[in-house]
Design goal:
The chain is mainly α. Helix content is 40%, strand content 8%. It has a three-stranded antiparallel beta sheet. The longest helix has 15 residues.
Length: 286
């Protein structure tokens, strides 16, 4: 069993699994490994029966006629994906799951959600899938031959502190499928949080008060010393970081440190911690 920040945050399944890349010309066994990895990521870790597998795209991939990106496209446009994550889900739940499955992160803000909703209205389901796979972000992150992976808890994948906290709302329960591992099920999970740009507590799944359902989004009140008029004071617990960092020696490498930060300074502090080689173990309101 893995221990450390990743396990405490509930993302050890993603942290301990390196990105999977296909190199053309490798063995059929390695091609099967790639195919399984694509199904696992694009279908949200759901079980795929033998009769549900896409035999034609699989054969095309094995023969070198499809890249990993095009095989991902075939799976995401399939009736299997459409029935599980589109026709049976509320619209904004379907969109946030597309972000999880195809870009490995939560949506940035309401405008990003709206733009994908507009694509669905004007161009349809297949164009919505293409908008992720043909984006500059997908190309620069995964290219043609890397299987998409969950990356929304990593600094380089995000643009805001709020988006970082939403990652844990979106991917918790990773040992089961995107729908069955979440109390929200087929209902939108991030919709109200994105609309109000509301951060959520990042705590261990085993901690008291941990939940995989969307928290209430009532008006925030001013609490704690030096809290700004815009929100609460947050407690950030920081520990050592194992991956490559900007600094060869991290000031956080030996023991945990705790910072109390007002809401309006949260994003700035988040960036500073990661630039100095720390990893955030928890973020909670005080």
């Amino acid at each position: 069993m893995p221990f450390g920040p990743a396990s405490r945050l509930g993302v050890s399944l993603f942290e301990e699994t390196p990105p999977v890349e296909w190199v053309p010309g490798r063995s059929q066994e390695e091609a099967e490994t790639i195919i399984r990895a694509v199904y696992r990521q694009v279908l949200g870790n759901a079980y795929v029966m033998e009769s549900e597998r896409l035999t034609v795209p699989e054969s095309q991939f094995k023969r070198g006629e499809l890249s990993v990106r095009e095989f991902v496209r075939a799976v995401a446009k399939s009736e299997l994906y459409r029935s599980r994550f589109f026709t049976s889900c509320a619209r904004y739940r379907a969109i946030e799951l597309n972000f999880r499955h195809l870009l490995g992160r939560p949506p940035l803000d309401l405008e990003e959600m709206r733009s994908h909703s507009t694509i669905l209205d004007t161009q349809g389901f297949e164009a919505e899938i293409d908008s992720y796979l043909d984006s500059d972000e997908y190309q620069s992150t995964f290219g043609e031959n890397i299987v998409p992976y969950i990356r929304g808890y990593k600094t380089e994948a995000l643009q805001s502190m709020v988006q970082f906290t939403h990652t844990f709302q979106l991917v918790r329960g990773a040992s089961s499928s995107s729908l069955k591992g979440d109390l929200s099920g087929k209902a939108p999970k991030l919709n109200s949080l994105v609309i109000q740009s509301t951060p959520t507590a990042v705590i261990s799944p085993a901690s008291a008060g941990a939940t995989f359902s969307t928290p209430p989004t009532g008006a925030r009140t001013r609490l704690g010393v030096d809290a700004s008029a815009g929100g609460k004071v947050y407690r950030i617990e920081v520990t050592g970081y194992r991956a490559k960092t900007f600094n060869s020696i991290s000031k956080f490498r030996r023991s945990n440190q705790v910072f109390l930060v007002p809401y309006d300074k949260l994003s700035q502090e988040y960036q500073r911690i990661h630039q100095q080689g720390g990893v955030i173990a928890s973020i909670t309101a005080v």
